[in-house]
Design a protein that fits this description.
With 227 residues, this protein is of the alpha/beta class. 31% of the residues lie in helices and 19% in strands.
Length: 227
């Protein structure tokens, strides 16, 4: 079985208890913390910034996977690097100079990811693929948790999987939006190896006594084990 990674999106966590939610979800076996940054400009919603990233950094050694839905993007990158982000991903539409933005993320000591909205063409991968550590395919339009998975994303995953496998570099292929227990296996078959899930994890009841998310994470992993 491939090494699959699960990245709970804290967008759907209980923000009144964010620290506890992060500790619980990592203790329950999640791999990354997916950190959705929205600016009410690039997307019609407003979420959390570097101060929150800095506040949660001491709680876990897990990778903090920052998904920037902000425009412009460059100015905020050093702030997230200083706040302890490990991976920083951005949308090509939010950068005037994509190669420069990738370079900026790496200069700051972070891994770099490029994000593709449902209608964003893959040609943005041309000429920069080898510089990327992660490719994020959006299976919803960005801005909100709890939306329905857009099936066309499966075709996009298949194409990107081929491009990654044709190269020598290890690049994570992440999917974000509408990932649930009942579709994660199909998404893995299309080529994803890293799965963002917000509402599927945090809207599931926490395990009563332990305050953990073992049951839902086990269900997601059980589906991945079938692939
Ligand atoms: C959407 C965000 C996602 C979102 C996923 O713009 O990038 O990370 O929180 O939420 P679900 O898993 O509920 O679709
Ligand atoms: Zn996201």
């Amino acid at each position: 079985m491939a090494n699959y990674l699960i990245a709970p999106s804290i967008l759907s966590a209980n923000f009144a208890k964010l620290g506890e939610e992060i500790t619980n979800v990592i203790d329950s076996g999640a791999d990354f913390i997916h950190f959705d940054v929205m600016d009410n400009h690039y997307v019609p919603n407003l979420t959390i910034g570097p101060l929150v990233c800095e506040a949660i950094r001491p709680l876990t050694d897990a990778i903090i996977d920052v998904h920037l839905m902000v425009d412009p993007v460059d100015r905020i990158i050093p702030d997230f690097a200083k706040a302890g982000a490990n991976i920083i991903s951005f949308h090509p539409e939010a950068s005037k100079h994509i190669d420069r933005t990738i370079g900026l993320i790496k200069e700051q000591g972070c891994k770099a990811g490029l994000v593709f909205n449902p209608a964003t063409p893959l040609h943005f991968l041309d000429h920069v693929l080898d510089k990327l550590d992660l490719i994020l395919i959006m299976s919803v339009n960005p801005g909100f948790g709890g939306q329905k998975f857009i099936l066309e994303a499966l075709n996009k995953l298949r194409v990107v999987r081929k491009r990654i496998d044709a190269g020598k570099k290890k690049i994570l292929l992440e999917i974000d939006g509408g990932v649930k227990v009942d579709n994660i296996a199909e998404i893995a078959r299309a080529g994803a190896d890293t799965f963002v899930a917000g509402s599927a994890i945090f809207s599931a009841a926490r395990d009563e006594d332990s305050h953990r998310y073992d049951t839902v994470l086990a269900a997601l992993r059980a589906e991945l084990a079938k692939v």
